[in-house]
Structures are given as structure tokens and as C-alpha cells.
Amino acid sequence: MSDIPGRSTQQLQVGTAHVVTLSGELDLLAAPALRARLDMLTSGPCPDLVLDLRPVSFIDCSGLGVLCRVRNRVRARHGRLRLVTGSTALRRVLRHTGMEGVFELLPRMPVGVAGPPATDTVDSAVL
User: Fold this and answer.
1) Separation CA 54–CA 107 (nearest Å)
2) Which of 8, 9, 47, 74 would bridge with 81, disulfide CB 3.0–4.6 Å?
3) CA-based diameter of the chain, in Å?
């Protein structure tokens, strides 16, 4: 895990779902490390990925690009991607970029997925 100042991720597996909590800024600086990490999690068949974006404070076009990439990888492998966010700002960004209906958005963790705190922590000032 590499250090990139200002962001963090936590990852755990609950059942078949990989739950990744992202925090801080998903921007040009964080995108390469985030892309690499999510590529690893979506490399197999039928990936089930839940990205908890509630602690994310900022997302730019690079961050959106990573989300689109992971969505495409998951769909190509017949998996499922869920984004957990209560952020009206993120929903507004998705609406203004024409991606409002592209992602499965949830206001809270799905039942059966919310688990114990992750032990794999990367600070995005750590990704």
C-alpha cells in the first residue's frame, strides 16, 4: 500500500461482497492508486463490490473516471457494484455529468453487508 497524502481507504470482505470505504478527496492525485486497488478487486469473475463514499469530501473528473472504469469492469465480469452515499453534492455531480442513472446508489450500507470495522486501512493521504 502506497502513501498518497489526503485520502484513505478501508477494505474488508463481508460474505461475497468486498466493501471498500473511501475518504478524503478522489482526485487526480488519488486516481492511479485507487484504480490499481479496484482493478485487483474486480479482476475475477462476478465481482461484488460495495464502495462506501460517505466519507469522501471531494471528487473530480479523475475520481469519476475511476468509478466509471470499475463499473465497466464489474459489468463485463457479470458482477455488481454499489455506491453508498448520502451526499447530495455527489448526486448533483452525477446528474450534471449525465451519469445519474449509471450507478446503483444506496443511502446506507445494504443489509447483510455492514460488518465490523475494516482492519485493512490505507490512508489516501493513503490509497
Assistant:
1) 9
2) 74
3) 36
The C-alpha atoms of residue 111 and residue 2 are separated, in whole angstroms, by 32
Classify 51 in phi/psi space as left (phi over 0), alpha (psi -120 to 50) or beta.
Answer: beta
pLDDT tens digits, one per residue of 30-69: 999 999 999 999 999 999 999 999 999 999 999 999 999 9
Contact 7, 118 (CB under 8 A): no
CA distance 111 to 48: 14
Helix (H, G, I), strand (E, B) or coil at 39: helix
| CA Rg value for the chain | 13
**Contact indicator for 117, 8 with CB cutoff of 8 Å:** no
User: What pLDDT is stored for residue 111 in this prediction?
Assistant: 81
Bridge partners, 122 (sequence order): 9
DSSP string, 7-35: EEEEEEEETTEEEEEEEEEESTTTHHHHH
